[in-house]
Amino acid sequence: MKRHIIILLITFLCLPEYLEAQLKYYDAAEFPLYGKATKNTENRYERLPDSLKHVSRKPVWNLSRNSAGLAIRFCSNSTTIAAKWENLNNNLMNHMTPTGTKGLDLYTWVDGAWRFVNSGRPTGKVNQAKIIANMEPVEREYMLYLPLYDGVVSLSIGIDEQASISVPRKAIPVRTKPIVFYGTSILQGGCANRPGMAHTNIISRRLNREIINLGFSGNALLDYEIAEVMSSVDAGVYVLDFVPNASSDQIYEKMEIFYRILRDKHPRTPIIFIEDPVFTHALFDKKIAIEINKKNKAVNSVFKSLKTKGEKNIYMISSEKMLGEDGEATVDGIHFTDLGMMRYADLVCPVIKKVLK
C-alpha cells in the first residue's frame, strides 16, 4: 500500500512535466509581425528605427521599446495554444492590469471577423502560459497581440507535439496602405485590460487593416523625427492624436511643421486630427476643464489656418461625445477603460473608413 502511494505521488508530481512535454515550442520570429513602421530596429519587438537611439528624447526612445500595437500572425491546427515570453522591464502600474501591461492576447478568425480566444497572463519577467486548450483539431488563423506597456525580449508559441503551425494562409489584416497613429499614453493602450482592447487594435480588427501604433506615454510632444518615421510609411491614413500631451504653446509652434513633414511626402493622403478628450473628471476639476478648452482652441486654430491656406484631405474629429455622458469610460479620469477604448473606436473608426482610399 505504501509503495502504491509513493508511485501515485511521483506520478502526480511528474504529470505537469509530462503534459508540458506534449507541447512543442516555435520561435515567434518564424512568423509575420504586424504593426511596425520599420524593420530597422535593435530588437524585433521594438517600434522605432535604431538610427533614432541617440536622436530621440530618452523617454521617447525607452517607450518605443514597448511592443504596443505589435502582433504575431500564424496558422495552426493545434488543440492547445501556449506561449513562453520574456518581458523587457517587468513593468507594473497601479491603474492598469498586468495582462494589459505585459501580457499576451490571442484572437482567431471566425466567420469573417476576429474573435477573442483568451489571454496569456503574466507572472513576472519570464512567463509561460497555456492560453487555450481542448479545442477541435482544425486549422485556424491566429493573431497574438503583444504587451502594451512593456517590451518583449523573446517569444515562442507552443502547440501540440503532433500539430502543425505555419505562416498565415489568409492575407489579413490587409497590409497595403496601413493606418498610422501618433499619440499619447491612451493611444499606447492605457489602460486596456488586455492588449487586444487598445483602441488601435480594435479599429484594426473592425477595418481588417494593419495599424501602426506610435503612442508614447506622456511624450506625444510633436517630435519631428517621429513625423519622419511616419512619413516613411506609405499609409492609407495618418491619425494625429497628440493634444492630451502637447501644450497649447507647443501646438501653435510645432503642429504645422509636423504636419508639413507628412504632407510634403504624401500630398494626397488623408490626415486626421483629434481633439483633446473631455476627460471625465473635468466636470469637477475646473483647472483641467480650462486646459482642455485652451488646447482644443489651439488645435482647431492651427487646423483652420491650414484649411485657409488651401490644404486638402485634412479632417478634425471633435472629442465632445468621445467618452459618452455617464462618466464611466476611464480608470482615473484620464486613461481609458475597455469601455472608453470601445467608445473611441466607435467615434474614430467610421471617419477612417470614410476617408480610406
TrEMBL record:
It holds the Pfam family GxDLY. Keywords: Hydrolase. Residues 24-165 form the SGNH hydrolase-type esterase N-terminal domain. SUPFAM superfamilies: SGNH hydrolase. Gene3D superfamilies: Galactose-binding domain-like (2.60.120.260), SGNH hydrolase (3.40.50.1110). Transmembrane segments: none annotated. The keyword Plastid does not apply. InterPro entries: GxDLY (IPR032740), SGNH_hydro (IPR013830), SGNH_hydro_sf (IPR036514). This is Acetylhydrolase. One of its GO terms (molecular function) is hydrolase activity, acting on ester bonds. It comes from Bacteroides thetaiotaomicron.
